Amino acid sequence: MILDELDSNEVKKLPNLKSVNKSRLKKAVGKVNALVGFIQTRSITETKGVLIAAANVVAVRLGFKRSKNHPREPWWKRRIKGKIKQLRKDISRLEKITSDKARRREVTEDLAKRYRVHKKDLNVLLEELKQRDSAQAAMLRR
Question: pLDDT by residue (tens digit) across 40-51?
Answer without folding.
Answer: 888 998 888 888
